[in-house]
Every structure is written in structure tokens, then in C-alpha cells.
Amino acid sequence: MLPIELKEKLIAIVGKENYQDSNASKLVYSFDATPQFQSMPDAIVSPGNTSEISQILKLCNQYRIPIVPRGSGTNLSAGTTPLEGGIVLLFKRLINILEIDEENLTITTQPGVNTQHLIEAVQEKGLFYPPDPSSMKISQIGGNINENSGGLRGLKYGVTRDYVLGLEVVLPNGDIIRTGGKLAKDVAGYDLTRLFVGSEGTLGVITEATLKLLPMPETKKTILALYEDLDAAAKTVSAIISNRIIPATLEFLDQPTLQVVEDFSKIGLPTHVQAVLLIEQDGDPQSVERDIGKIAEICKENHAVEVSVAGSEIEAEALRTARRSALSALARLKPTTILEDATVPRSEVANMVKAINRIAQKYDISICTFGHAGDGNLHPTCMTDARDEEEMKRVEKALQEIFEHAVALGGTITGEHGVGAMKAPYLHLKLGEAGIDAMRGIKQAFDPNNIMNPGKIFAKSDRKRIVVSQR
Amino acid sequence: MLPIELKEKLIAIVGKENYQDSNASKLVYSFDATPQFQSMPDAIVSPGNTSEISQILKLCNQYRIPIVPRGSGTNLSAGTTPLEGGIVLLFKRLINILEIDEENLTITTQPGVNTQHLIEAVQEKGLFYPPDPSSMKISQIGGNINENSGGLRGLKYGVTRDYVLGLEVVLPNGDIIRTGGKLAKDVAGYDLTRLFVGSEGTLGVITEATLKLLPMPETKKTILALYEDLDAAAKTVSAIISNRIIPATLEFLDQPTLQVVEDFSKIGLPTHVQAVLLIEQDGDPQSVERDIGKIAEICKENHAVEVSVAGSEIEAEALRTARRSALSALARLKPTTILEDATVPRSEVANMVKAINRIAQKYDISICTFGHAGDGNLHPTCMTDARDEEEMKRVEKALQEIFEHAVALGGTITGEHGVGAMKAPYLHLKLGEAGIDAMRGIKQAFDPNNIMNPGKIFAKSDRKRIVVSQR
């Protein structure tokens, strides 16, 4: 429980209607999309402007109360669970797009704006905000920035980080700083903008962002290529890029994923093959036509058993939506669904897929794999049951082996989900102790009292990873 | 002078032939491309591998001796001058390209590789490394990374930062860390990769880098548009982008710059007009043709008096080379040439050019302006004489006013040259004290003894900027 005078001060800042500490409210914000990390906050505050956030952070710093900034809580790394209690800080009153600047191709927004709403708002002006995390219908742009969210268009267009030009941030001491701006170039000191992107709310609270926009590609086309052989599908991925084509999207789904996604979405996905690639190219009509033709050829050369171009944008959108629903679909299958995020260099996708299947067999567990193959970003997903302790031990061992294998192949423990509390025990695999020490130094410099989202990124113990989703 | 036992230890690490402390050697490395900051180092060391660099940094940390990592010293912000003495650390033995990976589209390189050599090496394989600083014929890739160098292709392709995927870095305490990798996505903790890019050698020594490559655009075309009116040229810049076209290059040169560049390069540049835009588009032939057609139209609509498409790649290359030689050309004109780097949102280029001319008139000094107009990145350049103290005072006042104006327009004090020692007194204009404090915290965390390139980025006093180039 918060000290009573702190509660009074917080209410004085945000108003009574924007302070909650009922049990019901606390329960709502005790978890994010990563259920097994449930932990109760002491209160939930919804500030209405930067000045209020600055006052809140000063207070919390003084009282040493944890602050967990939270968008819609769709992250899959236990990045927004109030593990050490304290205050959950919501962006729900900061939901305005402040400006779409068509001359500088930028959008300036508050953090609580819904991602899909933002994408549609710029689309109306013929502009394009590429990052499209699977959760975009629910997620908030501030959460995307905190997590450096990826998405299906990452291969050609990069991730959230590549679109953040400037930020307003409240630091733990209450200082308000502005980084970058509507600027294509800015080298005035260290790159604070990109340091805050993906810092998972551990360094400060982002209160405003200026994002880069692109002209909307004129057209796009989607291909579905079917394979009787996982390896052939994975090899196609490398072959496309080696042929100097960078598709906008290059997704991989294996048979078990296909099956459950089709059961869920019922759009007529093939479920008799071992794997599919969902490939999309965008741009001007001639280039798209040419690239799609070449890609189809490369798929066939690499033993695709069938290659079909989506007949309409409606059909293509259905395919994309089906792909985005993979987690929801898989989560229906077994009581516990562990969605992982292991990323390797693109050339190692075939090896990684083989290793995942070998490891699954070794530990006698059920893993299906899908993901952003063009980015080397795979989501091996384990369907299990958390109540079966013996199986869970095998699952844990298997996942650890998958991470170790990813890193051994030149990869990383998380390509787009973040570290949060869930991956913290594995961070040393990627960074070594010296790398973690360097990051701890930054954390200490910004937040010496460790009030900002404590327990995230940096592991306290060797606590193992926990399941993502449970029925 | 270094303590004698330190000298002996350094020689034991790098070998006698890679340690220099003769007066002649020290003189050579007492300045970079920013002459008025000359200051003598105590020694120059040229390590041959990462382990040697680690040993050197440990020693220097122990003895509290400054280390200045230095590529070719082409920076224009006094970023590599040994202001507090100590050791200049050269990359000249670290000149190998370690791998060009055509499947992952990456190049892994040591820091001492010449930028142009790197660009040509990947070009031979049909690949493209876009960052092209004007100094690329001389500069080293390690220096480019330290400075986050820009270039002529920044508008469409971004700057050095956008191509650095992974680094090996030796920290001031001797720790060797590896960040990122051949990975399109990696969110394992804070973005150390981008923190090191542009950190001007103040946080550690970069010993290896993995850079992203693109497929080489099939073709490119170049337009030269002539204007009798500066404002019309500046407005064309915004109009092109507002029309949803992102050219690869969009350069601006005013009449005085044109005149001196033509005198220097003798390629037949028009010298009778007030300004030119040099515009390039690349991509597949149809898109380039279409974009170039539209761009030509937009130029005419915005009152270009002549618009011509370069007849051949040789002609286009001559134009680019002429543009890259602007600094060398201008430096011949008067004893002292002050090349500045003020950047504004693209939509403010017209206002900024007008302000520069108004400020030049107000202080009765001669400024000509060129730069990467598409990026809003202008290089107002003052031809003066450092021996004329009275004029220099006016120059200083004028430049300060230019920076203040750039920031007031939503711009920055440096778009691509870095802060170094030269811009340090102005950093607060962009960042405020809270922003500088946040950066100081990072510096302190990495380098508590301040051995890495001391005197850069952070101002000791309110020392004013100094001239760039003197005949």
C-alpha cells in the first residue's frame, strides 16, 4: 500500500477520477499479455499531461515507489507487470495525434494513440507508417516505442526504432527533455532517441514522439508458396535475398501452425503441406510485378509444390490477418502456450528450424514454428500444460537449448519481444557479463533509485522463463 | 610526456614500430580537419588487434591518460584533436574487410578500412553501402561510425547509424563487448549499437563493425535545376517531398558556392544563377524515369529557369564530385573558411536560407551556403580572415545567431559534423541543461576517469567556436 500522504499528493496531481486503487482496478493491471508474471500494483494513475507526469515521477523518486509505464499491455515479455508493486502509469488520457506534417513527412503523437488508428490516420493522407506489430489493433504507440516493436513489414522497412525521430521524455528525477525533432539528421551528442526506444520503460516516461513517415507505396502483391519440406522453405528465404530482392514481408508458417490458424480463421489455408511462405512486395506496379515474378520463380526453383499470387487485396489482407492471429489461434490448442522469439541471421533460418525440431524431439515436447523468416525472427511456440510439472521441466530445458542455439548461430535471445522479466535470466547468453554491466551503468545513471519498471531487463536471480499464455 | 614505464608497457603491447613519440609524429596528429584546435599528443600508438587495444585502455585507465581514437581525421568538429594530450590511437593496422556476406547482405569490417574502398568492394558484388560523406575518399569507416557521418544520399538512405548492425567495442576498463550482429532485429536490452554510433570516441574504441548492405539500385539519373531566386530553390525542395517523391540526393548550392566550385572543378557549372539544385534519383529504370520527369516538372512549377538531365553517368559523377569538393574549393578563397552545419526541418530550408543571408548582412560578413537541402542540412560557410580580430568577433556573433535561429526553427546545432570540441559550447541550445546532464550520466557510467577523448561533446567553459580551415 502507498503511504497515505503519497496517495493524497498523487490525487492532487491527477484528480480523483484519474487515481484508482480498488482491488478490481489493481487486478486489471496486475498482468499483461504474459500471464504467469501476475503481480498487484498499489495504484493506477492516468495523468493528463507532461507536467503531471513530471510531478508524479518526482514524488515516486522521493518515496522510492516503482512506476510501470503501460500502454495496452500487449507485450509478450512480461514488460509491463508491476513485479515490485507501486504505480502503473497509463497513457489513456494522452490519446491525441498532435500533428501530421505532410511537408516534413512526420507525425507527432501522444503515447496513448492506438497503433492501427495512427496507421490509418496517416494512410488517409497517402502516407505510410510501416511498423505493424501483430498486436497493432490493440497496442499503443507509446508501448511500441518502449518495446521497439517489430512486425510483418520489418524486412524491408525496419522496426519502430527506425521511425522515431524525436521524443519528449520525463526522466525519473522529473526533468523533461526533448531529443531529436523533425530532423533527417541530428548528431548533437549521444543518440538518446534510440536509447529510449526499446528501453522498456526503465529509463523514463515517453510523453510525446515525432515519427517518420514514408510515401504510401502505390501497390502491393502477395504470394503464398507451399512446401513439402521445411528446409526448402527456409532456403527459399535466403535465395530471395541473395537474388537482391527485399520483399516487404516474408513470413514462414509450419504445418502445425497452418492447421491451427486455418481452424481459427477458416480462410482456406492449405493444411496438407509442411510449410508455407507468405511473401509480399510493395512499390510501383512495374517493380512489384517484376519482383513477384522473380520471387515465384525462386520459390519454384527451391522446390515449392505450389505458388499462388493472391487474386485481390481482400484475399491478401485475409492472409495477413490470418498470420497475425497465429498466437490467438495457437493459444486455443492446449492449456499453456509458450510463444518464443529467437532470432538468427537470415542465412541460418534453415538451420534454426531444424534445430528447433530436433530439440523438440529430444525433449519430447510439441513445438510449432512461425515468424518473420526474412528477418531471421522465428517464433517457436510450445503447446503444453503448466500443471504438468514434469513436462514443464522438459519445456524449460528445451527453450534454454533453443536460445543457446540461436546465440551460437550468431543470433539473439529476442528479436522483437523485448527482455522484460521473462528473458532477463537469458540476457547474459547474448551480451556476456560485460555487456550487461555496460547497460546497468546506463540504468544507474538515469534511475539511481531504480523506480522505473524495476525487475525488467536485468535479472535478480536465475529465475527461469515462464509461460506466456494459459487457457 | 608519458611516464617512462607507461611508454615501455605500451611498446611491449604494440611493438616498437607501432609506437611513435617523435616531435614530427606528434605534430602530424596534433590536428584534424579542424585546424584551430591544434594540440600536441604525448604519443601515437597503432595497435594490431582488439586484445592490444584492450590492454592499452586498461593501462591508460590506470595511469589516467587520455586516449583519442582517430581514423583519418577528416571530421569538421575538432572531434579527434588531442586537446588534453595523451595518446592518439590509430586504426591504420586494422584495415581488413573481414567478410562480405551476400546471403545476409552484411559486411564485417575493421575500423581502419577506407570508406570509398569499402563502398567499391561491396559494389563489385552488386551491393550498396549508401553513406557517402564528402570525405569518403580519405575517411575511414571507424571514423564514420564514431561521427555518425552523413553524406549526399542521406535523404533517401539515411546516415551511417542506419547501417550499423553490430559492433565490437573495447570499453575504457578494457572489457570487450559485442553488440547486435547480422540481425535485422535485436531487442536484447538497451540499444548499445546506436549509442556508440556518433559517440565521437568518448565511450570506447570500436574495433569491428557489421554493416547492413542493400541491393545496388539498377540505375540512377541526375537533374540540375537553376534558379534566379534562392527562395524558389528552397521551396522546390519541400514541394518535391510533399509530392511523395524521395530522391536519393537533393543538394543545394548558392551562387557564391557555384562560382568557387566551378573555378575549382571547371566542369561548366552555371555561375550566372542565384542557386542550383542537384537532384538524383535511383532505382529501377521505369520508376527513375517517372520520378525524374515529375521532379523536372515540380522544379519548373517552382520557377526554375532551366532544368537539365545529366546526359551520362560521367556527367552526373562530375556534378557529384564537384559538389563534394565544395569545402576544398571554398577554402581557397580567403585565408579562413568557417564551414558550418546547421540543420532544420526540411520545410524550413527557405526560412533558414533567408535568415542566414539576413544575418550575414547584419554583421557585414560574407557567407555562402550549400548543403543537403533534402535533409534540411545546410552548410553556411563564412569566408573570412582569422587575423582580423574585429571581423572575427562579428563572425562569432553571426554564427551564434545562425545556431539559435536553426534551433528556434525546430532544428539542431549539428546535423552531420558532430559536436567535438567545436560545437560543445552550443550543445545546450539544442538539449538544455537536463539533456546534457542525461548525456553526462552516460559518459560517467562508461568512462568514470574521463580518459576517452576528453574535452569533446561536453563543454568545459563557454569557449567560443573556432575557425575550421585556414590557408
Would you kindly provide a written description of the structure presented here, covering whatever features stand out?
Two copies of one chain form a homodimer. Chain A contains 15 helices and 20 strands. The first copy, chain A, is an alpha+beta fold. Among the domains of chain A are: 4-92, Uridine Diphospho-n-acetylenolpyruvylglucosamine Reductase, domain 2, CATH 3.30.43.10; 97-215, Uridine Diphospho-n-acetylenolpyruvylglucosamine Reductase, domain 3; 219-318, Alpha-Beta Plaits (2-Layer Sandwich). In chain A, strands 12, 13, 14, 15, 16, 17, 18, 19 and 20 form a nine-stranded antiparallel β-sheet that branches. Chain A has a five-stranded antiparallel β-sheet with strand order 5-6-10-8-9. Mean pLDDT of chain A is 93; it is low at 461-471. The interface between A and B is large, with 91 and 91 residues.
Total E-strand runs of chain A: 20
Secondary structure category of chain A? alpha+beta
- Describe the biggest sheet of chain A? 9 strands, antiparallel
Overall mean pLDDT of chain A:
93
Describe the global form of chain A: globular
Q: Largest interface here, residues on each chain? A: A-B, 91 and 91 residues
User: What does the oligomeric state look like here?
Assistant: homodimer
Binned strand content of chain A: 15-25%
Stretches of chain A where pLDDT is under 50 for at least 5 consecutive residues are: 461-471
In the CATH scheme, what's the topology name of the domain at 97-215 in chain A? Uridine Diphospho-n-acetylenolpyruvylglucosamine Reductase, domain 3
Distance between the termini of chain A: 30 Å
Q: What is the share of helical residues of chain A?
A: 25-40%
Radius of gyration of chain A: 22 Å
